[in-house]
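Handoff note, outgoing to incoming analyst
You'll be picking up this chain. Sequence as last confirmed:
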Amino acid sequence: MTMTHARHLHLMTVGLVLVVGLFDPAPGTAQSLDVLSPAVRDFVSVSAGHVVIRGAQLIDGTGAPARQDMSIEIRDGRIISVGSVSEVGAPEGAVIIEAADHTVIPGLVMLHEHLFYPSGQARYNTNEISFPPLYLAGGVTTMRTGGSVDTYTDLRVAQHVEEGRIPGPHMDVTGPYLEGPDGFVRAMPQLSTPEQARAHVNFWMDQGATSFKAYNLIDRETLRAAIETAHERGAKVTGHLCSITYREAAELGIDNLEHGFFAATDWVADKQPDQCPRGASQTYLDLDLESPAFTDLVDHLIEHDVAITSTLTVVERRGENRPAPPSGAQDAMLPQLHEQVMARLGRAGTAGQAMLDRYMEMEKAFYDAGGTLVVGTDPTGGGDVVPGYANQRALQILMEMGLTVEQAVEVATKNGAEYLGRHDQIGTVEVGKRADLVLMRGDPGVDPEAFRAMTVVFKDGVGYDSARLFDSVKGWVGVR
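Most recent structure output, in case you need it:
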């Protein structure tokens, strides 16, 4: 096939500059172009149903080495061909995106995201308008909310994304937290008996929740009942724990634990059952990571198939000389909250850096032992974690932790898809899977800043302009 039989899109340094053609994908794709509202179509930069991304570096999400001069052919929202430029060619009628000096990775599958953000005094505002486009702009095509304080809104946002009313990733929505009495956020439930836990899980699954998250103060028997009920109905349970140790949670059947190991209370001396101890941080620094105290726990988690979610973006600020949120993230914040966020940066000092280093060492040790590491951002800490921008940053931190670029991409794509049970559809760049892809300028293996240079985010084969999505959110994070 000669190049004259194909239409072309050229990616320049400013991003995608030309869009040719409009094609309505056939029924059966996850979300076809024809269901998108005019407001969502405003962010679409590649609308053709038959597209070839030509000549890019490909990091396919499997962990395999990056491949050069590769082409990916998309038709009707699916990947139909992956191969060298010569193998894929320029099929007749396809729009060709010339992608030399660019990298393609799978769409990100992030497992600790939220639609709420801190607004002060243990109050969290749901950001139903600003967060969905920010996540999509940052390459996230599928996400799990790692806890909810406004679940009806989260469910409606997920519905509106699927209906094409608003731009955003596919969402796995957790129900309200599985929390015990006296949780620090008033919006959280207070569950103190197995009967309450079962009723809670059943009610919220009936409303559409697809996973659950346990929190600091729940007791073991209440959590056991919640896990058993969720599993009976095909849902998974994760946890940010304190009153329950990681070992105990694994034995209860939990599927996932959040924040690496920094929520673990397994090494606290005189830890009382079902009680959340204070002052656990020093135990991490005192712990010998080659001792059975740590390695036995890692082995126990792996044996029980418990995944660990890395959320180093939300604890990064504890370290010294960490980069500030990028200018776009700062511009996205409500101005009054921006002032507060920036005033808090850089206060941790050397002790905070030691803790950050230890968190990275523990997660890397778990990964090296064969544990399932997934990743998320948790935009609920000090306000410096802004969706989209933070998802890009999460990949950079995984590389700082010691993963190769291929391993970091695998953690952020394939591992998340496998955890959600959707690996047959998403998570890797393979023939037959949904065309959830991210195109970026440069080579993140050489310069991790390339993760900040995303140009087009393909979700179900529809290409969204990353910069346009980011630019649509200025001054609203924290309020809407």
